[in-house]
Write a structure and sequence with these properties.
This is ATP-dependent Clp protease ATP-binding subunit ClpX. With about 475 residues, the protein is of the alpha/beta class. Helices cover about 45% and strands about 10% of the residues. Helix 6 (about 120-130) packs across helix 7 and helix 17 (about 400-415) crosses helix 18. The structure holds adenosine-5'-triphosphate and magnesium ion.
Length: about 475
């Protein structure tokens, strides 16, 4: 009775399946991909797997064959024409294999910001010290601002006294470490950071990046996690390049208009940003990001702003009792520190823009001593990099003090900040890196002042010679 009942159910299922199949497309063999028309009747397995009788037979044949020989190799099991690599897991779940790998979501689970975990300003600065030489004031201002920013973000819901956001504007000559400082900071704090370049920004609708693209950069840096992005940092470099253009009759789409477009971002607004793209178009999904808790840091070299400062100071100084010599400020190394909002306005920044960047600070130009330190002291100092390279050849590389100062002096002449150091060093190290590997007996190279100044060569010590000579030096 029960058998009869079961048979009925099976028959019914087959009937149903046939009905379904009427609407389905043709079956294909999962192994050799031939259609039912070509390969004949298929054997159906669960999960939509069909195997033609040829393949089934071949499987069994090879299995029998392999079983009988002593070393049974499973890899040969599916060694059949038309089949290259078979992932057995795909047979169990054929549809899953085609799916795009989903974005990591585990990160979302942990709290985005934990007030206790934010390092105190002195700790942030101490870590910055390991990488960035000098710029004490800038490091201090940034450590405090970042610390406060995160305190503000973390207490947002607890406190009804709204703490103002402290967007920053940093000014400093080229190559003094502006970009480097922000990059280092972002590495230390585990927060998403987007570094955008103001030169490529234009008013919406014009060729170039929309202003809002800086927010989508941040969103990308936060793995498309809106909540995380809303607590991130956006660094806009080369901000001086969006100064108002002087004497122009055309619409200033990459200058003043960009400043105006940035106003609402700086202050805090809901912006619609495309996910995974730089510009909005019909094909890209949009999401809303609130910029209220995003810390904006703007940086720029502001070339020639010294002239504006000088002009202002001279004007003040030339009147009445306090009248001064006109060239008093010409060689003042601290001239930039005297910058005011008024000077920036004269440079071409609009007042509304400046008003939204309450913390304005300057970085010093580098002097020779700082250059020497930059060469040798930071964690990834250029000298350490060369020393490491030569150490791989078991050659010791030393620079004497005079050489370091000579390199720094040469870099100072170029007026491009610390960037010049690498270029100069590269020039002198070329011969050394070329010659040293030729001779296995060389154990140590000492770069001397004479070598840098072109009046002599480097000191080269052979292996075995190095110990007595070094003690002599000491
Ligand atoms: N104070 C510093 N301490 C250590 N390294 C520095 C310092 N200043 C500059 N450098 C080195 O010089 C390189 C160039 O500096 P950076 O990119 O920060 O210049 P910048 O101030 O952004 O100049 P620009 O205005 O031209 O963009 C850095 O990658 C870094 O290696
Ligand atoms: Mg820079």
């Amino acid at each position: 009775m029960s058998d009869k009942y079961n048979d009925d159910i099976i028959e019914e299922e087959i009937q149903n399946e046939d009905d379904d199949n009427k609407y389905e497309s043709e079956k294909f063999c999962t192994l050799c991909r031939r259609s039912e028309k070509q390969a004949g009747k298929m054997i159906d397995l669960p999960n939509n797997i069909h195997i033609c009788s040829d393949c089934m037979q071949k499987s069994f044949d090879s299995m029998n064959q392999q079983m009988s020989s002593s070393n049974f190799n499973y890899n040969d099991l599916f060694n059949m024409p038309n089949i290259s690599m078979i992932d057995l897991s795909s047979l169990q779940n054929p549809t899953q294999h085609q799916k795009v790998k989903p974005k990591k979501k585990e990160k979302k689970a942990e709290p985005v910001l934990d007030l206790k975990k934010i390092p105190a300003p002195h700790k942030i600065k101490a870590t910055l010290d390991e990488y960035v030489i000098g710029q004490e004031h800038a490091k201090k201002v940034m450590s405090v601002a970042v610390y406060n920013h995160y305190k503000r973000v973390a207490t947002d819901t607890m406190d009804d006294i709204a703490i103002e956001k402290s967007n920053m504007l940093m000014i400093g000559p080229t190559g003094c470490g502006k970009t480097y400082l922000v990059k280092t900071l972002a590495k230390l704090l585990d927060v998403p950071l987007a570094i955008a370049d103001a030169t490529s920004l234009t008013e919406a609708g014009y060729i170039g990046d929309d202003i809002e693209s800086v927010v989508s950069k941040l969103l990308a840096a936060a793995d498309n996690d809106v909540e995380k992005a809303e607590h991130g940092i956006i660094f806009i470099d080369e901000i001086d390049k969006i100064a108002k253009k002087k004497n122009t009759n055309q619409r200033d789409v990459s200058g003043e208009a960009v400043q105006q477009g940035m106003l609402k971002l700086l202050e805090g607004a809901d912006v619609e940003v495309p996910i995974g793209a730089n510009s909005k178009n019909a094909m890209v999904p949009l999401t809303t990001v609130n910029t209220r808790n995003i810390l904006f840091i703007c940086g720029g070299a502001f070339p020639d702003i010294e002239d504006i400062i000088k002009e202002r100071l001279n004007k003040q100084a030339s009147i009445g009792f306090y009248a001064d010599l006109k060239d008093k400020y010409d060689n003042d190394p601290h001239l930039l520190e005297k910058v005011t909002v008024e000077d920036l306005r004269n440079f071409g920044m609009i007042p509304e823009f400046l008003g939204r960047l309450p913390i304005i600070f300057t970085l010093n130009g580098l002097d020779e001593d700082m250059m020497v330190k930059i060469l040798s002291e930071p964690r990834n100092a250029i000298l350490k990099q060369y020393q490491k390279l030569l150490a791989l050849d078991e050659v010791k590389l030393e620079f004497d003090d005079g050489a370091l100062h000579a390199i720094a002096a040469k870099a100072m002449e170029k007026d491009t900040g610390a960037r010049a150091l690498r270029a100069i060093l590269e020039e002198y190290m070329l011969d050394i890196m070329y010659e040293i590997p030729k001779d296995d007996s060389i154990g140590e190279v000492i770069i001397t002042k004479e070598y840098i100044e072109g009046t002599g060569g480097p000191q080269i010590l052979l292996r075995g010679q190095e110990v007595p000579l070094l003690t002599e030096n000491n």
